[in-house]
Amino acid sequence: MVISIRATQRNANPSFPTRATVSQECITAYNDLKLSKKYKFIIYKLSDDNKEIVVEEASADKDWDTFREKLINATTKSKSGAVGKGPRYAVYDFEYSLASGEGERNKITFLAWSPDDAGVMAKMVYASSKEALKRSLTGIATELQANDPDDIEYDSILKTVSKGMA
């Protein structure tokens, strides 16, 4: 039996999402967070044409709840113009004290936020572009995937990031 496999051009279907590229602005902001501690967190989003990952916000605000609310309330616009919940990528410089009293630690944490009620197409584009962003950001200590607001409660994140040692 002979099986013929025909090669097809990748993404020949224009409605199928493609991988986005990472803007230089994303890398610059990340280096400012990592090296100079200029920011506490960075929230990344896809550009309106879904072709590039850009910085939505870089902030020095240390309040976890402020960061969390920004993710939960993020919106995206579909091709039809409808606005709904939107996925995001984020980096947070997580600081904590070890329970054993051995001092302070910090871990740069990458968070992929893709709420369950986000549009299917938006989730697909974000999922297919995540690795490109992660590869561009060297020094990520922890990676988390969150789909529900309960997934990004401070205590559960702390437990994961500190491996239960905080």
Please provide a written account of the structure:
With 166 residues, this protein is of the alpha/beta class. The chain has a single domain (44-161), classed as Severin (3-Layer(aba) Sandwich), CATH 3.40.20. It contains four helices and eight strands. The chain has a six-stranded mixed sheet with strand order 1-3-2-6-7-8. Strands 4-5 form a two-stranded antiparallel sheet. It is globular, with a radius of gyration of 18 Å. It starts with 20 loop residues before the first strand and ends in a 5-residue tail after the last helix. Mean pLDDT is 88; it is low at 1-13.
Task: List strands and helices in order, with pairings.
Layout: E1 21-22, H1 24-36, E2 41-46, E3 52-59, H2 64-72, E4 75-77, E5 83-85, E6 88-97, E7 104-113, H3 120-136, E8 142-146, H4 154-161
Parallel strand pairs: 1-3, 7-8
Antiparallel strand pairs: 2-3, 2-6, 4-5, 6-7
Protein name: Cofilin
Subcellular location: Nucleus matrix
Family: Belongs to the actin-binding proteins ADF family.
What count of domains describes the coordinates? 1
The stretches of 5 or more residues where confidence is low (pLDDT under 50) are: 1-13
CATH architecture: 3-Layer(aba) Sandwich
CATH topology category name: Severin
Number of extended strands:
8
Taking the alpha carbons of the first and last residues, their distance comes to 60 Å
CATH superfamily, called what?
Severin
| CATH class call | Alpha Beta
Succession of helices and strands:
EHEEHEEEEHEH
Tell me, rounded to a whole number, the average pLDDT.
Answer: 88
Give the helix tally. 4
Q: Taking Cα atoms only, what radius of gyration do you get, to the nearest Å?
A: 18 Å
Q: Globular, elongated, flat, extended or rod-shaped: what is the shape?
A: globular
Largest beta sheet: strand ordering: 1-3-2-6-7-8
Biggest beta-sheet profile: 6 strands, mixed
SS strand fraction: 25-35%
Binned, the helix content reads: 25-40%
Protein name: Cofilin
Family: Belongs to the actin-binding proteins ADF family.
GO molecular function: actin binding
InterPro entries: ADF-H, ADF-H/Gelsolin-like_dom_sf, ADF/Cofilin
